[in-house]
Amino acid sequence: MDQQEISRFLAETRIAVMATINRDGSPQLTPNWYYYDGTQLTFVTTKERIKFFNLRRDSRISVCIYDSPLASEYIVMRGRASIREEGFWEDARHIISRYVEPERVDDYIERWKSQPRILVTVLPEKIYTRNR
């Protein structure tokens, strides 16, 4: 896939599976909503999740986004994650808007603001793809 095909694939509403590295070196996987702007991938999580602690200790991350249910097409990104703890609510709005009805977005934002949320940005160092 070229960059345009990657962006088109990632613009569809899919779930990203994030892989971080546990303290003992084993992988830790979690599904997440995401937004991809053509250059970087962002997602929101809380400071209570294992992936937050893992990324704070070791910023390496892999992300797999696949075509459900067969996974005959997929994209895997490897890179480093950066964490932003403030001033990210417009980014969060982009993410939430991809997954919920427009009339529910503000409710999600308000609920998320009451939780210890962070924004994670992944700048891919390597992208692997598979298409049918």
CATH superfamily: Electron Transport, Fmn-binding Protein, Chain A
Q: How far is the N terminus from the C terminus?
A: 11 Å
CATH fold topology: Pnp Oxidase, Chain A
Low-confidence stretches: none
Principal-axes shape call: globular
What percentage of amino acids are in beta strands?
Answer: 35-45%
What's the assembly state of these chains? single chain
How many helical stretches?
Answer: 4
Helix content: 25-40%
Number of domains: 1
Instruction: Please trace the helix and strand order, writing H or E for each element.
Output: HEEEEHEEHHE
Radius of gyration: 15 Å
Describe this entry's structure for a reader.
With 132 residues, the protein is of the alpha+beta class. It has a single domain (3-130), classed as Pnp Oxidase, Chain A, CATH 2.30.110. It is built from four helices and seven strands. The protein has a seven-stranded antiparallel sheet with strand order 2-1-5-6-7-4-3. Strand 3 (35-36) and strand 4 (41-46) form a beta hairpin. The protein is globular, with a radius of gyration of 15 Å. The mean pLDDT is 94.
Features:
4 helices; alpha+beta; 132 residues; Pnp Oxidase, Chain A; 7 strands; 27% helix; globular
Topology summary:
Elements: H1 3-11, E1 16-21, E2 27-32, E3 35-36, E4 41-46, H2 50-57, E5 60-66, E6 74-84, H3 89-97, H4 105-113, E7 117-130
Helix pairs in contact: 3-4
What's this model, at a glance?
It contains four helices and seven strands. 27% of the residues lie in helices and 39% in strands. It starts with a helix and ends with a strand.
